[in-house]
Prior knowledge:
With 278 residues, this protein is α+β, with helices and mostly antiparallel strands. The protein is built from 10 helices and 10 strands.
Amino acid sequence: MLRAEWAVHPPHPRLRPFVARYIGYSQHGNTLAVHRGLPSRHITLIISLERPIRVVGMPRADQSPGEFHGLVGGLHTAPSLIAQDAVQRGVHVELEPLGLHALLGLPSAELAGSVVDLADLGLASLPERLAEAPDWPHRFRVLDDVLRARLTDDVAPAPEVGWAWRRMRAAAGGVRVDALAREVGWSRRHFGERFRRELGLSPKQAARVLRFERAGLLLRARPRADLAELAVECGYYDQAHLTHEWRALAGCPPGAWMAEELPFLQDDDVWPGAESGT
């Protein structure tokens, strides 16, 4: 029988423009063989407090599988496949893409579609420090200390891109790219180039990810929802369009994902905001 514990905590106020939240997790009796790491609005930093994380399928076909005590995954448009153990314990950190340069010293675009070892980012000691901490509050304080020490104030994205990204997030991808370009006073081509240069995804790709993420949140909150109605609510043409996008971004249709993953992901404290799209 699955026993799961979650601990959700906000970062230090100084870090909040750059880090969305910390999530501690502990699962015993896990029976899911492979977890799908789905595309989302966040860059993910994951540290295992048990066995190394085994990524058996990368979001990008040219990157080989690997094992990591800690990793950072960039924005992506395909799932990462992570082998699961019966006992799992670790920390998941949601990073804001446009704050990555100030936090880790490189733009989000350099990580797009990739999984990178924490050691390659100068954080090789972080997994051991978290493992030595006695409980979740202490682990979250370690994260605050380490990330605040890395923070620099002299790197900021173009304000037009930051504004457009916030607009896209607020609308869950439901805003036209040409309208965003007009509102920031750029041509569509220039807007697309600058946006991709900062985030590593085109505006169209980012909108796809945000719509997809919205659909996933609604499925968690309303697992018996009519898929045709949910598709329209999330900005898809119809249920067939929704299913096509899920096959592309999750590697499976919504029904298969719900059967595989949903029993492990239903927790209102961990997955809030499904009704608002935030």
